[in-house]
Give the backbone structure.
Amino acid sequence: MAGGTPLLSFANVSKHRWDGSRALAVLDRVSLVIDDGAFVGLYGARRSGKSTLLRLAAGLTLADEGSVRIDGNDLAQLAAPRRARLLRGTVGLVSADTWSPRPREDVVEYLTLALGCEGLTAGEARRRAYAALDEVGMAGVGLEATASLPLVERMSVMLARALLFSPRLLLIDEPAVIPSLSGREQFGSLLHTLGNDRKLAVLLASEELIALQGAAVMMSIGAGELTSSDDTGVVVPFPGRTREAAQLSAL
């Protein structure tokens, strides 16, 4: 957002993992800015650091160095309860790694449990859950067992759960886990529709370029380093899309 506070920013962010006594860089001095309404593709191979980048943006882990900011708030400087409140209403993460259904739980229960601290009655929570499922084309699976859902439906149900809190930024980690090409295309089309209808920013990370088709801007990550699609430090929109459609630049 020109002249304003960006929705998400990374400034010289590094994150390490330990191999015995050695610290290995997962992310190495990564900087980026994403504004409201951006649709960004992040390409990287397995273990390139893209999932770690999304987890940092979602506040699930904190940077070892540098700062991650949401609406100008440095996540590492916020007390845990305040950080959780800020992220709950701003950022939604959809990742197959976070799928953890309970025994004998149905889909509506999976969603309503997430609403437990919203002060809603049981009926209000169920209505809100069904509205979110309907928005992602999953209203018909409300009474299905979460444990029995195929991957494409799991991803859509997790997306519905993220939408319960009206986020401004959706973080989508690896839609390529959906086994069929038609399922991946369907899920990608849904993300674009939601981004346009809700004016959401979307950061979509995948090891498959085809899964990122239609993103307005592109980045790539490898060995923990983030690069743009040109050498000027500015992420270049795909042909036919304007920079204004999704403003994102490397700092």
About this structure: Residues 181-198 form the longest helix (18 residues).
